Protein: Putative transcriptional regulator
Organism: Mycolicibacterium chitae
Amino acid sequence: MTTAKVERLMNLVIALLSTHGYITAERIRKSVAGYGDSPSDDAFSRMFERDKNELRDLGIPLETGRVSSLDPTEGYRINRDAYALPDIELTADEAAVVAVATQLWQSPELVTATQGALLKLRAGGVDVEPEVGVPLSAPAGFPGLRGSEGVLPVLLSAINAGKVVEFDHRSSRTAPFTKRTVEPWGVITHHRRWYLVGHDRDRDDTRTFRLSRMGTDVAAVGPAGAVRPPDGVDLRAVVTKAVAEAPGGVQARVWVADGRATSLRRAGTSTGPRTLGGRDGEVIELDTGPYNGLVREIAGHGADAVVLEPAALRDEVLARLRAAAGEAIR
């Protein structure tokens, strides 16, 4: 099937789906890209007949009928109700399996099948990996998981078996690692990052851990069946709350270029002018507020806003900028 034919068929499907009534062949010839270059009426008729048969062979419910009660001319449309995919429902465990499988099916022999499977699931409304999105053209791994790809299968296996996990974790890129012992309840994605939710035995509290900040030595310990998530717990709500909470009492110092980053200036207090990298600007103090929102706001100004402190906030902004640069390169 040539590229021109594929484009023509796609254009035809879009046209037939965008109307509630029937479209005549003549109107299709005039308005659907790919048919207007037909050298004659006979050539168009043959092409259109082949295309209709091809759509029906693909299972697309092409219907024929009168254009209107006053116009007996035969027209065409696609039955939307018959064309729409039925709802596809996966349990949390099934969606997790699909997510892991797409990470593992990256060999040259399987990558095409992987991408096709993801497209079909997404077309059916299945959020295989919510908010993160799998880069169909770059099977190098998932955003937010790079460097810790081996952690996810261990955690999912432990969750499935109901076993406790032990791992090293740090609160920021510059903080030291500490040993954690956790009863894992589930793994959730939020804003392109992966998080483990569970009960931290050392702190006797529900905690959230970003996978990219875990050490690579993650181990399941103890007997199977020892861990059971509380009934009714909303893992996504736990992660959303944890990410949104700001470190208490932390003030950020940010340099902003003259005439730039107006929204940051309005939100902060100026502490005086400063030249940075040969550019004039000033330093402002900001309440960190919702941490993830501040990271997104500062990163959105690019080189016009530079975090001076705290180091954890600077690292978060740099990580977001590098991730954005990597997506642009791909």
